[in-house]
Amino acid sequence: MASPRLERITIEPGKCGGSPCIRGYRLRVSDVLALLGSGATHAEILEDYPFLEEEDIFAALEYAAIQTGHPILIAA
């Protein structure tokens, strides 16, 4: 079952080249992840992007976690 948090991630063909964005804004999931990866704190991100909510950051992380998952094949 999909997490309700993932409803915050939107994909629109004409926006940001169809990249996953946060709640329809022109802020990509990858932008949020890059900020976190560079060491920005949640508080710093929220200060720089006042339209964001902390749940948006968690949604970006959850989306990334799902995207990096892969099936595990077990030999019979």
TrEMBL record:
Domain of life assignment: Bacteria
InterPro entries recorded: DUF433, Homeodomain-like_sf, WH-like_DNA-bd_sf
Pfam families: DUF433
Residue stretches spanning the membrane: none
UniProt cross-references to Gene3D superfamilies, sorted A to Z: Winged helix-like DNA-binding domain superfamily/Winged helix DNA-binding domain (1.10.10.10)
UniProt protein name: DUF433 domain-containing protein
Species of provenance: Allochromatium palmeri
